[in-house]
Specification:
about 550 residues, mainly alpha, Serine Threonine Protein Phosphatase 5, Tetratricopeptide repeat
């Protein structure tokens, strides 16, 4: 193919976002006639988006030298920015520092005051972010944003805003940070920025939503990322985090069967790609789904794979040990995880499981301290989801402390929030705790209703361990309710259970029909049923006939 024809074909493929075709067309053209710097940049972009990171690095390097040969220092420095992004994201800090220093020297000898100054500042900000220096990240990114504003550079504007937003979240200003990320995403969804910057922005905003426990935003931006990825043919980077976060969002919203299929698909897809990204997160989510369904061996295998790939296996692994009955091992594992957790956001992902395991181990004061820490973080973060999770933990501690009525108030707020967030599993777990607290305070009818409601959700979701526990509690509540019946009420129930009418029961027991009706009304209330058939079923199930 002649150079002009190859360029037309590549441009057509670019317009379709067919990155594999772009790479194939331009690679073949480059073999026949070495490409100029603009086409080298296009080829480097296609290599990056199809997961060919080593080829991408080589091509950005070639483009850098080609622009230098033409005497265009700013364009050569811009290539260093894209190369530096690859190096930072793959953890090659020394190479990135070397290239950044070279680009800085080139700018010092080239035209003064260019937008590329801002690009190098943005790259420095990204390096600071990964080094954990959020204050420096914010300061440098704000300088980069000033350059972007002066030179009207959409890519740099977007990149700098995302860096500032992420640093604000880490600095404890979650709402300000998330709002800035929302603003940055306007340009992304409008197609105003390049594919690499778009992909990085999507990943950043979704990760930030999860870090800020903002379930609604996470769901919305994950759906947008899914649509964007679908439009990018043969895309490899960014799709991994899309799939992993999509699984988590589906799990939280109760779509467990679909989430399990998606998790399997994510793990298979990422194993087959030349540059698997976020496979560790996908395996962790797969482990969570298996754990919740009671598939302990599969869960632990998935956690091991996630750990092998660099993701923490906690708190899921500790909870799976607890579900398997090994409370001691679960306690040791969650202690280690909590000790290793650093900042508040990371810590609050461990604390709810820590409370649950400490309560199971009989360590009430440990659980209380952890619940108080979680409450303090939740208050600072101002996240409805985290607030509800904290309320669930505090309610469990109050219940274990014998403060049943106090637990009911806290748990009631938590379950209302979980419902509002459409998080059915967490709402059901909270209702189960409400049922237990009602039983402790002597309200057996409400206890039965709450426990049965939770049981129905667990059954629908396939949450086997929770279902077994809830069914056991239903049985205990039912037996307790039977004990509340008077001798005469049990006698009336036995007659009703064999199909007798009120008149027949009255005749057999030498009572008035009005008295029989009053006894039946009392029986319905104490058993938490609303019909003769339900009362009959209850009598047969509990050996009253």
């Amino acid at each position: 193919m002649k150079p002009a024809a190859a360029q037309r074909s590549a441009e057509a493929a670019l317009s379709r976002h067919a990155w594999g075709d772009v790479f194939a067309i331009l690679s073949e053209a480059d073999r026949q006639h070495p490409l100029g710097p603009e086409d080298l940049e296009r080829l480097a972009l296609a290599a990056h988006l199809t997961g060919r990171d080593p080829a991408s690095d080589d091509l950005w390097t070639r483009a850098h030298h080609a622009w230098l040969t033409r005497g265009d220092v700013p364009r050569s420095v811009r290539c260093v920015f894209w190369l530096g992004l690859d190096l930072v994201l793959t953890g090659e800090w020394a190479r990135c520092a070397g290239w950044t220093a070279r680009a800085r020297r080139l700018l010092d000898t080239g035209p003064p005051d260019t937008v590329e100054e801002g690009y190098l500042l943005a790259l420095e900000g990204l390096r600071s972010y990964f080094a954990g220096d959020m204050a420096h990240t914010r300061a440098v990114a704000e300088q980069a944003l000033a350059f972007a504003t002066r030179f009207k550079g959409p890519d740099l504007t977007n990149f700098a805003m995302v860096c500032i937003g992420e640093s604000l979240i880490r600095l404890g200003r979650a709402q300000d940070g998330v709002l800035l990320l929302d603003e940055a995403m306007v340009a992304v969804t409008a197609g105003e920025v390049s594919p690499i910057v778009s992909g990085l922005a999507y990943c950043a905003v979704i990760a930030a939503c999860h870090e800020a426990f903002d379930l609604r935003r996470a769901r919305e931006w994950t759906a947008e990322l899914s649509r964007w990825c679908a439009a990018q043919q043969e895309l490899v980077p960014y799709r991994g985090i899309c799939l992993a976060h999509r699984v988590e969002v589906m799990r939280l919203h109760g779509d467990w069967d679909d989430a399990l299929d998606e998790a399997d698909r994510a793990c298979r897809w990422m194993r087959s790609t030349p540059a698997a990204q976020s496979a560790d997160a996908a395996y962790y989510q797969l482990g969570e789904l298996h754990r919740l369904r009671g598939e302990t061996e599969r869960a632990q295998a998935a956690y091991r794979e996630a750990s092998r790939l660099g993701h923490t296996a906690q708190p899921g692994l500790a909870l799976s040990l607890l579900a398997a009955g090994d409370t001691g091992a679960a306690a040791r594992a969650i202690h280690t995880a909590l000790d290793a957790s650093g900042d508040g956001i990371t810590r609050c992902r461990i604390l709810p499981a820590y409370v649950e395991i400490m309560l199971a181990a009989g360590e009430l004061e440990e659980a209380r301290t952890a619940a108080e820490q979680l409450a303090a973080i939740a208050e600072a973060v101002e996240s409805p989801l985290l607030s509800a999770v904290s309320g669930q933990a505090r309610g469990a501690v109050l219940l274990a402390s014998g403060e049943a009525r106090g637990a009911q108030a806290v748990l009631g707020h938590a379950v209302a929030t979980f419902r509002d967030l459409d998080a059915p599993y967490e709402a059901a777990r909270t209702r189960l705790l409400i049922g237990l607290s009602c039983r402790e305070s002597g309200d057996d009818i409400t206890a039965r209703l709450e426990i049965e409601a939770a049981t129905a959700v667990f059954r629908e979701l396939g949450a086997v361990p929770d279902l077994l526990r809830a069914e056991e509690l239903v049985l205990k509540a039912a037996n307790g309710a039977a004990g509340l019946l008077t001798a005469r009420e049990r006698e009336v129930l036995r007659h009703v259970a064999v199909g007798k009418s009120n008149r027949a029961v009255a005749d057999d027991l030498f009572l008035s029909e009005k008295t029989v009706a009053r006894h039946i009304s009392n029986i319905f209330a104490k058993l938490g049923v609303s019909s003769r058939s339900a009362a009959t079923a209850y009598a047969h199930q509990h050996g009253l006939v």
